Amino acid sequence: MEAVNREPEYVNFYQVRKGIASWLFTHDHKRIALLYFWGVIGFFIVAVLLGMLMRLELIAPGPTIMDAGMYNAVFTLHGVIMIFLFIIPGVPAIFGNFMLPLMLGAPDVAFPRLNLISWWLYVIGGLLALGTLFFGEGPPDTGWTFYAPYSVKTGTNVTIAVLAAFILGFSSILTGINFIVTIHRMRCPGMSWFKMPLFPWALYATSWIQVLATPVVGITLLMIVMERVLGVGFFDPAIGGDPILYQHLFWIYSHPAVYIMVLPAMGIVSEIIPVFVKKSIFGYKAIVFSSLAIAFVGYFVWGHHMYTSGMSGTALIVFSLLTFLVAVPSGVKVFNWVATLYKGSVDLQPPMWYMLAFIFQFMIGGLTGLVVGSLATDVHLHDTYFVVAHFHYVMFGATGFAFIGAIHYWFPKIWGRMYNKRRANQGLLLLFIGFNLLYFPLFIVGMMGMPRRYYDYLPEFTIPNVISTIGSFILFAGLLMIIVNLIRGGMKGEKVGRNPWGGKTLEWQAGSPPSLYNFDETPEVTEGPYIYNK
Amino acid sequence: MGTTATHNGIQGHVLHRDDEGSRLGMWLFLFTEVILFGGLFAVYAVYRFLNPEAFHAGSGTLNLAFGAVNTVVLLTSSLSVALAISAIQMGRRKHTLLFLYLTLILALAFMVNKYFEWGAKIEHGLFPGTEHFFELPQGEAMFFYLYYFMTGLHMFHVVVGMILLSIMAVKVFRKKITSGNYVFLENSGLYWHLVDVIWIFLFPLLYLIK
After folding, report:
1. A107, A184, A218 ranked by CB distance to B10: nearest
2. pTM beyond 0.90
3. CATH number (domain holding residue B93)
4. What CATH number does the domain containing A426 carry?
5. Cβ partners under 8 Å of residue B49, min gap 6
6. Over the stretch A189-205, which tens digit does the pLDDT of each residue have?
């Protein structure tokens, strides 16, 4: 790494070095964040297109554009890409990498080289996952959960897909370790734990989940690989294995992983709302502790994915109780955000609209989670479209919207320019309408009894499905509009200064875009991150 | 580079070393390793609970002598890597190298021992896929699946540890690791202790519990 240019002329991190190699082998956390950004966005678009194909297939009963086998492959890839390549790495690897050191007043993360290795692992895992499309026996058709024994028996490319997930898990673990050490060791002078902004706090809770939960799925996926390659039968009942054990091991990771997906998004909301109401966040410590509580309790609720798989009655009741408990800290956060709005001078800029959409959709997603978290109702709703609607409201309606909102919020910091705000709002409106039109009818059709994961359905489910598919077109149009607007903003938008939104956290003290080591002088902190009222 | 800025600052944009941070990172990584094997131990516990007699019979066929010798070998190697770290702290480069070589030799001994142990099993047809194996009662086959998978994964970690320690030996030789800068060696030592600790759990689970 070279010393920063101290000439009076400002050199941002894009200008320090040029060329492809300066990106692919960079140790700079901002460049690595952007590498992730392009990768994540690329995979996101692929998975969106796969989702559109599924919706198109479901516009009418019977085979419309594909057969059952193809549909199975499409929904599996849609799930694998969206989960392992978009939503798990999305917020932490992009905005975590870019903003964490800036918000802590640090020059980089604790282990810059490890950070680069994480990105390379991400790329390798991603290419393997995509590769299942093109070679071997065709893409996996097991669903993203790879449930045994089917995942052990099917002739499709499950081995490679599972290996890809294993490698991506490794990448996720390394990022988690990196962030924990960064937060422990690299906060700037004066920034005590409770003067740290809430996004780093959310990343801290997330990183612990990444470190402590991911290895379990790692070993489980390795067992699947062993079973397929060497015939070592851990889960195949024909050779003495227990498929339910696979489900337990899988969800021991994959339920906490749900919080890997949503906690950083909650951190973004806690960050953006105070800036646009010009008011200190309500209940800072309550938000901090609710993040930690979610991370902790989230470990003990995995059984709620398996109410119908076969478990003792006591286990069912305990898992259901804990599931209700984990909803409490999420509720605390929602109340804190709404209370922050109270008597604030709300400035409805595009990022703020995203946050309002987040709260609206997160509440629908969260409360329907309690419906499927209850034992009796779940027996009726398990494996129906109700569940599909529920988790899309949380994953896309909450995390996805927070992700796009975060792009709009930090856009001027990352690219140094402003996009067209009118267009941004119009794009969001389309996205919001499309999203709700797409997923809300699925609640209803789910309650009517339409099972998930079939390419076909009974004629009485037609109307909600048609509405849903129309919603997907509107959503897609909204996404296109947002992407085009952001690209134009990045190329031709008006240049902005260091702090276009009037934020108080440290990243707004750095240049837009920041210089190589972020700050000219090491920042010093004397008060909390959201002091607006003086 | 694994260097980092210290807690209080980036004065003059010189990136400082942060040994404490490196150690913290290593400990976190070791947590993940423990949980990785923890998943396997959970699987072991479940299947042992389901097939107690078969696991008993399977464990009876393992050669206790091989296992016991390997336990002693690994424990001794853990001692020698700890001595290597003590030696570098006192600036005794030659002793450090000596202890590192000793550790590597012991690790190699472990692998050779394992080779003969596995070799004998495979010769008897006790390996997934063979005819003899299919005739085993279900639970006992599961015991051997777990035996191969757990010791196999552990062996993989031994090999990684050997590679790490070899790199460390080269770095000590080239004076890249000195009495003032030995956190890499310390972290490699931590990794080696983890390999040892996992074996300490594998040995009774597979060989001793009757």
Report:
1. A107
2. yes
3. 1.20.120.80
4. 1.20.210.10
5. none
6. 999 999 999 999 999 99
